[in-house]
Design goal:
Elements (H helix, E strand, L loop, with lengths): L6 H7 L12 H6 L3 E10 L4 E13 L3 E3 L1 H4 L5 H24 L6 E4 L10 H8 L9 E6 H6 L1 H11 L4 E8 L6 H4 L6 E4 L1 H4 L6 H16 L3 E4 L5 H10 L3 E2 L8 E2 H11 L5 H5 L9
Parallel strand pairs: 2-4, 4-5, 5-6, 6-7, 7-8, 8-9
Antiparallel strand pairs: 1-2, 1-9, 1-10, 2-3
Helix pairs in contact: 4-5
Length: about 290
C-alpha cells in the first residue's frame, strides 16, 4: 500500500524485528507455531457499532523476531503462498468459534492473492473447517484491485462458484489499480475497500474527497458495502460519515491485535460508549 495504515504497530514492534531474514519455510513456521492471526475491527459508521474484522497473519521468528508479511512473502514459492493462505482460512474459522462463544459473531475477512484463488480449494476448506453454527455469517475474501484486473476472467469464474456458498468477495485497495467499474461490473463483490491513500485527508483534500464520494456512490449502485481503510484522523472519519460510507477501519478506530487481546478489547468495549459517539463530540476514543 502507498500509505501504511499500520505505522503505529510497526513502530511498537520495530525493536523486535531482526535485521536479516533467512528464507522461511511455511511448513516449519506452521509446525512450530511461529504464525498467528491478528484482527483489526471494522466499524459500522452509521449504526456506530462493530461490524466485522480483517484477519492479518503475523510471524514471530525465533531468530529474526517479529516479521511483517513483506519480510518473508517474497521469498515464498507458490506452494508456500498456497499453504499460508490455507492456514489463514482455517485459523480464522477456528477463531470465529471462540469469538462467537464470547458473544461476538463477527464476519471475518481474509486477504488472499488473487492469482492463487483459482488454485486454493476454498469451498472444500470451508466445508471441512467451517464453524458448525447456524449463526456463522461466512467469510469475505479480500482481493486487491490491481490483482483482480490482471486476471479478471479467472476471478469471475471463481466468483460464480461462490454465489451459492457462504463465501463473498471484497475489492481491496480500490483506487490503486485505476480500473473502471465497467470492467468489474460482472464480478459479484460484497465490499469495496477504499484505498488508504484516498481516505487520508479526504476531509480537506478536494481530489481525495471527490474520489471517495464517487466510489461510494457507484459501489452503492452495485448494491455493495464501502469500507474506508486507513482512517487515522477524526476529521476524515466525520467526512466519510457525511459521504455515506458504510464501514471504517484504521488506527483511529483500532490497531490490529492478537486474538486474545482483540477479544479482551471487544469485551471492554461493550461496557463503554461507542468510539463514533465520542468522536462526534471531538474525542479520540478507540475501540481497542
Amino acid at each position: 500500500m502507498a500509505v501504511d495504515e499500520h505505522s503505529e504497530e510497526r513502530q511498537r514492534l520495530s525493536s523486535a524485528q531482526g535485521s536479516a531474514v533467512a528464507p522461511v519455510s511455511i511448513d516449519e513456521a506452521i509446525s512450530n507455531n511461529w504464525l498467528d492471526v491478528w484482527y483489526q475491527p471494522k466499524i459500522d459508521l452509521r449504526r456506530k457499532c462493530l461490524a466485522g474484522a480483517e484477519a492479518l497473519v503475523r510471524m514471530h521468528h525465533p531468530q529474526a523476531g517479529f516479521l511483517w508479511p513483506e519480510d518473508y512473502l517474497d521469498a515464498l514459492d507458490e506452494e508456500g503462498q498456497l499453504k499460508l493462505s490455507e492456514y489463514s482460512l482455517i485459523t480464522s474459522m477456528r477463531h470465529w468459534t471462540m469469538f462467537a462463544e464470547a458473544g461476538f459473531g463477527l464476519r471475518l475477512s481474509i486477504n488472499v492473492p488473487a492469482h492463487l484463488l483459482p488454485k486454493i480449494p476454498v469451498s472444500a476448506l470451508v466445508a471441512a473447517h467451517r464453524p458448525q453454527s447456524e449463526k456463522w455469517p461466512g467469510l469475505i475474501l479480500e482481493l486487491t484491485e490491481d490483482q483482480i484486473v490482471r486476471d479478471l476472467p479467472a476471478i469471475r469464474q471463481v466468483a460464480k462458484e461462490f454465489k451459492t456458498s457462504t463465501i463473498a468477495l471484497a475489492i481491496d485497495e480500490f483506487g490503486a489499480g485505476y480500473s473502471s467499474f465497467s470492467s468489474l461490473r460482472d464480478l459479484p463483490f460484497t465490499e469495496l475497500k477504499l484505498h488508504a491513500l484516498f481516505v487520508k485527508n479526504c476531509a480537506t483534500d478536494v481530489s481525495n474527497a471527490a474520489i471517495c464520494q464517487t466510489a461510494i456512490d457507484l459501489a452503492h449502485r452495485f448494491g455493495s458495502v464501502v469500507v474506508a481503510e486507513g482512517i487515522d484522523a477524526i476529521a476524515d472519519l466525520q467526512a466519510l460519515i457525511v459521504m455515506g460510507c458504510d464501514l471504517g477501519q484504521g488506527m483511529l478506530v483500532a490497531p490490529p491485535l492478537p486474538k486474545d487481546r482483540f477479544l479482551d478489547a471487544l469485551r471492554q468495549h461493550t461496557n463503554k460508549p461507542r468510539a463514533a459517539d465520542r468522536t462526534s463530540q471531538g474525542g479520540d476514543e478507540r475501540v481497542a
